[in-house]
Amino acid sequence: MQANGYFQTPPVVKNLIIINVLFFMAETLLPRETGNLIVEKLGLFFWQSDYFRPYQLITYMFLHGSIGHLFMNMFALWMFGRSLEYDLGPKRFLIYYMVTGIGAALIQLGVNWIEISSLHHSIMTDGGTQQDIIRLGQMINGVTIGASGAVFGILLAFGMLHPNVGIFIFLIPIPVKAKYFVIGYGVLELLSGVVGTSPGIAHFAHVGGMLWGYLLLRYWKKRGLYY
Length: 227
What we know:
Number of strands: 4
Mean pLDDT: 85
Largest sheet: 2 strands, antiparallel
Strand order of the largest sheet: 1-2
Low-confidence stretches: none
Shape: globular
C-alpha cells in the first residue's frame, strides 16, 4: 500500500462498502415485508428451491443479517482491501472480489447438495422421521447472505501478497505474520464446517472464497500479472 495513502480508501473498496450499507439500510429501514422480500429475491437459495434464481450468486454477497455481520465484513474489506486494490489495481481487484464471492457461493451450494442428497437418500431408504423431513425442507429453502466469502478471499490474497506483515489479533499481545494468520483461519473454518460448529454460519463458503482466491492469484502470477 502507498505510504501516503494508508488511511485513504480507494474507489472500489469505498463503493463496495457504500453498496453494502445501502442494501442493509433497505433491509432494515423499509417495512418488514419489503425487507423480507429483498432477502427472498436476492439471498442465495439452493437450486432445488422455488426461490432460487441464478443472479443470486452475485446479489447474495451484498446482503447481511445484522449490523454486527455487516460491520465485521466491511471493516475487514476496508482494512485489507485497500492494500489489495493498490496492489492489483481497481479493475483486477473488483474482478478478484466478484470471483471469490461467486466461487464461495458455488462451493456452499456444492456442500449443500452433498448434505441434502445424503439426507434425502436416508429418508427414502429408511423412511426418516418427521424431524428429518422438516430439516430437509429447511436445508433446501435456507438462505445464505453476506460478503464473507469475498472477504475471506481478500484475507487470503493479503496473506499471499504480504506474508510477513504483522497482524494484531484480539487477546494475542504480539503481531502474527499474515501468512500464519491466513493459514490458521482457513484451517479453523474448514474444521468448523466439517465438525458442524457454529450452525448458521457458512464455513464452507469462507473456505471457498479462499480457495478461489488462491487459484485466481496463482493464475495471474503465472501470467505475470502481479509479482
